[in-house]
Amino acid sequence: MAALKNNKTLECLSLQGSNMSSAARGHNGAAEFNPLAPEGSYTLALDNPTDRAVAVQLCKFDLTSSKGSLMHNIKLDDQSMKSVQEMDWPAKLPSSGLLEFDFVARKIQNMVQVMDNKKFQAVVFQLESKTMADVEKLTLVEIIAPFTYLYCHQIASILQCFSMGDEAVRAAALLFTRAADLEENLDALTSALQDYDVLSLQQMLGWFSYCRFSNPTGHYELNLTTPVHQAIAVRLKDVAYGEPSEGSNWYNVVYDMYSHAVKVPSNYGPPDFWKGVIPTRGTVSLDYVSTTRPPAEALPIGDEELIDFLHQEIGLTLDNTGNVVPEEDYSTADMQLALLRQEAGHRFWFTCVQVRRIMDAFLAGPHKVEVAVMMWALIVDRKDFWTILYSLPPFEQSLLMWRLGPLNVLDKAHPSAHYVLDLSNNLHEQIARRLVDMAAKNPDVPNFWNLRLQGVKKVMPEGSNMWGSLTTESFTPWLEFDFIYHDAWDNGSLGKTRADSEAMGKFDKLEVLSRQAKRLEMQRIKAMYGYFYDGSGYAPPLWRTRSQMFKALIEKSPWLAAWDRLMRLLVRLDLRSGDIQTDSYIEDIFDSRCSDEGDLPQENFEAICRDWGYTKGEIYFHYRRLFEVSAKLVVREGKMSQAASRRTHFSYLPSTAASRAQSSRFSEAGDVPADKAKQQDASNGSNAGKDGQEDSAADSTADGNTAAESQEASLEGAASGEVPEAPENEDTPPELEAPAPLKRAPSTWQEGPVLVLDFPTFVSVFMQEPPPELRFKEVPTQTNFAGAHAMKAKANSKRLPPATGTSRPHSPRSKK
Questions:
Q1: 407 or 787, which is more confident
Q2: pTM for the whole thing?
Q3: Both ends of the chain: CA-CA distance in Å?
Q4: Residue 516 half-sphere exposure, CB side, CA atoms within 13 Å?
Q5: Nearest 5°: phi and psi at 787?
Q6: How far apart (Å, rounded) are the C-alpha atoms in residues 661 and 551?
């Protein structure tokens, strides 16, 4: 107030941006009026000064609109009226009567403009007063900042009015959010500050110091009790109201008021219950998704210019061939990503191919997703955005859809992806219903794989009744699943083309899809492994650990906060589901194949790889070599195998149907049935040189049925979860049978020296994913690991102490 009293040039005091007090009137139409978000139904008494002011303002909006009439269904004292233009309102607006109408415009152009020079000089004159303390100057800045924009050189002039102290930095942080030319003239803003003040400014802004509001698409964690964060929320509100109104731009809004939280799936700008005014208490989390698109004449950056930009301005390293080398240090990559957000958003347009190239320059999942998110409004060929989605691992796919809104990302021709959906979110429900309908139109093979309902693995028949099954326990459950549709045959992930699929029988298709589903499930298991403690000593990336996940989100980078929000949910659901029998999925997998001594021979290690969808090329060229380097040599004494002799290194061990049913406890969606497994074992010896997806199924089943009959029978209920052996009670569908309890596979190796992996070494080896180029690489037709290893074992047997034959040492990995 002191600043207002001493202002000699004050001509008008505006209440722009403030709501009218509901206590001044009782009519519900005017009680919640906000000129920046005026859409709604109104009932106004024209003899009431407050209501009349609202009616006059809305009539002016209608008159100046370039989109035609905004006021509809106009009634005055229950008499229908013509348009505002025809009645010449507000000039001839009646002085009394009850006015009712609907105001249907989604947006009134934000009327806050850059402060003109006359008003700006008046503000500077006030701030230069020697009788005004810095605290009072900061108060004046807080008053004017939310309702105007300033150029950076104007902000510098204001900052020069402050003496040395924290107030200047706090004022700079507030005015940073109101800079109209921040992208081009940031140096002009900081020129008024000392070097240490610039550093303090950056620390106060945090990661938002790299944000540019010309491209605001991103994740925001804001503490609304902090003036800077509140100013950022105000700027995001203003940007939202200034964008095209064909859709929402605030997504996944969580307003936490400490005692309770309110969730808003999507909205055009801030939640409606805020009435356009940003609260000053609580925290808010949101994903901003810009509705703007590149102009039709926009041209993408050239490929050579892109590489030069990434190297010179972002700091990415190039190899000898000129390709970008990803940065292995996570903190350094964080800074590179922040610089990319700062520099790229207002300078260039990109193609989807170029966006994927930039994503390949980062290793961490949150970084890859953030690149795709920040480029959303800059992509000139958004029709190909599905190629970006396809290039990501499963969790990254679901996070990208979550952050951008699944309806924005879903391509009906390319729906295959990993989905995490909250059906209490109407946008997520729409996606789920669409996928259920698409699956019903493709009944030949399952489309939903690895289905989890509230974190619990489920097997559900697909068809017209699937939606009812999904919502039986709750109308708004959490769903997680892999959706594999027709387009999967075209994107190269199955190793077969659509033409190949058309020539296949139903069971052959099922086997290919089942292998892919298990592979996707293993990628999920590996991504989740860092959040579980099982004593293996494996050191996951710091950003993928439980200790990091539960740190305060507001202290993290925006992209990591978005990642951890989703991971907290999934880890919680996994822990509640009871599906993990020990301390982690990886430990369960190891226990299913290890010996009584607690180690894993090569045959069983490679069987695990096959069980989880890895191809022969990946096993032969990647995992086998890692095994040979990492395994230790031990001597077995008096441990003769009772199982069938080993045929080739690609045969399943153990090969009995019962043991395969036990191992199917760990196999995911549509695992190969026990009778089919026998056929595979019989055929593996003669098909060692072919891809695992082409194994023959010519032998008959154990109970005398033909292979064709067993193939047809295996189609039922194979969409998600295990396919155990047929139960004794034929009235119970196999997919509804409870899985068999966990049992360790029987020992099948013979006496003498063998190469084995202990649990920690198994984890370090198995967690290393093979390069993509090895997936469908052909292997030598005659491959047998036994000879080389046996020779090595014999050569070293005299130098090795014999194994004691004691039981597996669980103590290092006992449950906490």
A1: 407
A2: 0.76
A3: 62
A4: 29
A5: -65, -55
A6: 41
